[in-house]
Amino acid sequence: MPRSRLACIGLVSAAALLFQVAQTRLFSASYGYHLTYLVISVSLLGVGSGATLSGLLDRRSSRPSVATLALAAAASALAALLVETHIDPGAALAASILVAYVAGALPFVFASWIVVRSLREDPALAGRLYSADLAGAAAGSLLGFVGLPWLGAGGLYGLSACLSALAALAVAGPRTRTVAGVAVAAAMTAALTLAGDAIAPPQAGPAKRPVYGENIAHLATRWDPHARVDVIHYDGLPTGELYRNLIDPGYAAPRPDAHFMLLDQSAATLILDGSADMSVLRASIIAAPYELLNRPHVLIIGPGGGIDIQNALVHGASQVDAVEVNRGVSALMRGALADYSGHVYSADRVNVMEDEARSFVMRSAERYDLIQMTAVDSWAALASGAYALSESYLYTAEAFDDYLRHVTDRGALAVGRFYRDPPTEMLNTAALGVDAMRRRGVADPHAHLMVLRYLDFGLLIVRTAPFDAAATDAIRRFASAHRFTVAYDPLDRTGPFAEALVGTPVPATDDRPFFFANDPGGRVPMAYLILFGALVPAGILSWALLLLPLRKTIGPALVTSLARRTTVQALAVGFGFIAAEIILLQRLTLYLGQPALALALGLAALLIGAALGSAASARGKLSVGRAALASALIVLTAVVLIDHVTAATLSLPLLARAACACVLSMAIGLPLGAVFPTVIASAGSQDDDLVSWAWAVNGAASVVGSIVAVAAALVLGFTVVGLLAAAGYVVAALSVTTGLRLRAATTASPQPT
Q: From the centroid of its chain, how far is CA 294?
């Protein structure tokens, strides 16, 4: 097979992964975090559908050329963006999701079709072909991470189209249509980078806030792998209205005006006008902890627009350290918004670091008088269920234990969350505080907690020392003076909140970090409904679009022992790989301290390792059984040892930790990448129809497996997901032995006449 075909496969695979990154960012910004799972499902369905179409149509003489398929992938990537951004999900959510489902699948269909056709034509080269596919996907992952801040999501769609058009040029040469395809894709990339919002305007789905419209002044936009950042100003609102739920209703002095910073058009943070008098913050509910402290050393988790920093400075903090995970936020606060905010990120006694807060705290040797974290997540998280499946490592039992270990003996942890009826978020937050004190050997952990409420906002204060009469009276007086409610009083443990807290379990751990998926009220958690809503259509569509058409066409080929063994292996490997990927990326998130970096670097390294393993399998010396058994052992070893390795190297600089993560991911990927091409080569050597079947079955297993893996993590934890991944490869290894026994028995048994 010519090298141009390998280059074509690498380019379309990179384009497909890049398209998936862009789709994920677009869906998260416009529809909601939970619908980003739709992107994964759609992409995997598209990959499987490409195999189905190859099995159905490639036997015809009039089949489309590889160059045509590559150009179709380029055109469909751009079409998906333009179609998805011109349907208002707020007015027609079902229609917009349906259109996005179809449009979002097409680039994967065409890319997969190219790969599967190549495998069918020469299954003996499955190792090299699959290696090119995985290496291209790894490159796409890194391109998405590096390119998003510079190009924006729209520019990534254009870049994906460019790569697919270049794939057509690589395989067909400089013909009119291939050169034109590259030129058009390049022009669209430039246009989308320079005027992305004008060509593909951001849509606001349910629980999202529009960033353009009447009485909205749009001030700035930044794309970051963590979130799209928009800064807006609402014209005509009374001054201070945006933060009314934080301030004493009787406060009569002037209040600073404020801009609104939105992350993915939902999670919001305030940017107060730094030229105004900040005395209003002394009458805010977030000022309560300072009643217990004098010139404290403060750590702010998630400073966002800087209101917590300004609050600390107003109350005389001796030093303010702050940790912001979103580099887009930090860049705006240090750049375009620096003057408006009063240069709060670079003020005297302020040190803002760009890092993931939990990872920073784990590595830090400092102890603080106050650690404050105010609503670091979505403003509409609980109401919409949008973050029900979001892994939040800021709100776990181990996280609160880490925070309190870095608080001084008379210090406090203050966590602000939204207080609705029933107060699910605040109960879960308080339960984490109780558990953290219990972990420290405190006999009466409830004596260390106090909860305030005003309107829809609540504040939990956890002291390392018990709330004695003096401390409790100080908070009571503060609350009374400013018309706030004491929802939980450690010296008077009566009332609805106190009664509900007694029966509230620990809502999240590092192994089950789904803080927003828990509902102490006994209702079915939103996360379960989301997963059920994703699993049913995923199963139906996988059967109807991937497996049923092929089954009808190549049915006779599927009754052999080889076909049955291939089916079991493709199913087991499809689930095993996606589950191993999920557990690896989960572990790396805390280790590297940058979720987006963990995703891009961990996925790229895993795929590069898999590509090397696939290339090694092309030598033909490794059987399916041995490759699968090696994969099971490496996954099991990783599950057992990865936490010990990361803990031992956590204090290293980021560059060194990134290198360790790459080595670890590549080591896991090496055996994993050797299994599936070995399955393909074995099946294709007997019947090329089984190549399409194995690819489609593997795609279906990945679609359903990704949802099942998340469900298992939600209920049982990520460690169990890792064990299930290892079990998948054990099943693939055992199927070889079972298949040999069946075949031997069939040969020895006399046939009826």
A: 40
Query: What pLDDT score was predicted for residue 165?
Result: 97
Q: Are 438 and 445 in contact (CB under 8 A)?
A: yes
Burial (Cβ within 10 Å: 0-12, 13-18, ≥19) of residue 752? exposed
Q: Report which of 655, 645, 654 is spatially closest to residue 584, judged by C-alpha positions.
A: 645
**Helix, coil or strand: residue 526:** helix
What is the token pair recorded at 386? 């949008």
Whether residue 376 contacts residue 302, with contact meaning beta carbons closer than 8 Å, is answered with yes
Q: What's the token pair of residue 116?
A: 């599967």
**Secondary structure tally for the chain: helices H, strands E:** 22, 12
Statement: residue 741 has pLDDT above 50: no
Output DSSP code: residue 13: H
pTM of the model: 0.88
- E strand or H helix at 653, and its extent? none
Per-residue pLDDT tens for 254-274? 999 999 999 888 878 999 999
Collect all residues with Cβ–Cβ distance below 8 Å to 220 and sequence separation of at least 6.
Answer: 229, 230, 231, 332, 336, 337
Polymer length in residues for the chain: 753
**Half-sphere exposure of residue 359: CA atoms within 13 angstroms, side-chain side:** 25
- What average pLDDT does range 106-128 have in this prediction? 93
- The contacts of residue 311 (CB under 8 Å, 6+ apart) are 281, 284, 286, 287, 290, 372
Contact (Cβ atoms closer than 8 angstroms) between residue 696 and residue 51: yes
Collapse the DSSP code of 234 into the 3-class scheme (helix H, G, I; strand E, B; otherwise coil) and give the result. Answer: strand
**Helices 397-405 and 424-439, interaxial angle, to 10°?**
60
Tens digits of per-residue pLDDT, 616-672? 887 766 788 899 999 999 999 999 999 899 888 988 888 899 999 999 999 999 999
Rounded to 5 degrees, φ, ψ at 453 are -145, 140
- Helices 126-172 & 176-199, crossing angle to 10 degrees? 90
Cα separation of 151 and 576, whole Å? 34
Contact 69, 110 (CB under 8 A): yes
Beta-bridged to residue 284, according to DSSP, are 247
pLDDT of residue 378: 38
* 3-state SS, residue 488: strand
Distance from C-alpha of 193 to C-alpha of 189, rounded to nearest angstrom: 6
Instruction: Determine the 3-state secondary structure of 181 from DSSP.
Output: helix
Nearest 5°: the CA angle 141, 357, 502 is: 115
- Amino acid, res. 434: V
